Amino acid sequence: MAAWSMPLKRKCLSLQWKLMFARPLFETPDMICKNQLLERVSALIDQRRLKTTLGQHFGGIDAANLRHAHALIESNSARGKIVLEGFSAD
To answer: Residue 17 and residue 41: Cα distance in Å, rounded?
Structure first.
């Protein structure tokens, strides 16, 4: 057992991770289920039956908007998700 886990074990705690895209990552036979679930969620949002956690949308990602978003997070007054768009990992 890892040394870091002993303090948790004595308190009967555990850490668990859930990987959102495990099905496509491991190419499981039922990986179409993720697409079906996301399509359903998208439809419920469009119907306004499900509300997103979007807090603020700062537009395109650039230095000024990134500083603005970071300052809001550091202020501990942010509510919901903060969105910057246009980022590409390519």
So the answer is: 22
Would you state the structure tokens that stand for residue 63, as one six-digit string? 């230095």
Q: Which residue has the tokens 């969105």?
A: 83
In a domain, 2, yes or no: no
pTM score above 0.90:
no
Determine the Cα–Cα distance for residues 59 and 56; give it in Å rounded to an integer. Answer: 9
Domain count within the chain? 1
What is the domain extent for residue 74? 53-90
| Residue 61, pLDDT score | 93
Helix, strand, coil: what percent of the chain each, to 5? 45, 15, 40
Does the residue 46 lie in any domain? no
Q: Counting beta carbons within 10 angstroms of the beta carbon of residue 82, is it exposed (0 to 12), middle (13 to 18) or buried (19 or more)?
A: middle
